[in-house]
Every structure is written in structure tokens, then in C-alpha cells.
């Protein structure tokens, strides 16, 4: 399984995570997905309601706003940072992974992606592509 994402978005997610320090950064990944791959077309940089280095949450109002703008696309994943830990789902992440196909995590060891398959955490290949993605910064 692969997650396809544009090169500029990877750079922006790293910069956004630096801005959020020491707290976790969070973004919503929108695009298309099937059993073999996901393609990120739009990334919504959203506020971390928890304002915490240990957790994140997104307000229901912001999720509703994004859902209204989806068109023919879907929310396919979540990006968040682990400012002081490796890029691997925490126990809290695993509890919430069922809601989204892809979990893109930036940790102290780089960026990695995961999915939950039959209750098991599986690493997903990240395919960085030279194409454009839309990037939207959502402010509360």
C-alpha cells in the first residue's frame, strides 16, 4: 500500500510542525483512496485543539467545514507530529486510527505513514511526487 503526496506538501508539513513546537501539529489529508493506494490532493493545516506535545484533536466545527468542501474527494487521513518521539503510532493514535485510512506522522526519526489492517498497525510506503497539492491553512 502506498500514500502518494506532493513534494511541496512534505516540506510544508515539516515547517508547520516546527511552527507548532513544542506542541503536536495536525492536518487533515483529503484526496482519493482504494485498497492499494491513497493520493493526497488537499492538505488542511488545522489548529491542535489540545495545544499539547502529547496529543491532538480537531474541533467538530473545523471537520464540518472541511467536509462541506470535499466535493468528489474524501478525508483519507490525518497528519500529526510527534515533537519528541519517533514517528510511530502511540497507543492513543492506535485507538483512533479506525476513523481514517492513513496516519502520516512526523517524528524525531523522520516522516512515516501507517494504516490499521485487521487490528494490526501496518507501515505504508510514502511516494513523494513532483505535482501540486492544494494547501489550506484553517484558522479558528
Automatic annotation (TrEMBL):
Record-level GO BP terms: proteolysis
Keyword Hydrolase: yes
Keyword annotations of the record: Hydrolase, Metal-binding, Metalloprotease, Protease, Zinc
InterPro entries to which the protein is assigned, alphabetical: JAB_dom_prok, VirAsm_ModProt
GO molecular function: metalloexopeptidase activity; zinc ion binding
Residues covered by the JAB domain: 17-115
Protein name per its UniProtKB record: M67 family peptidase
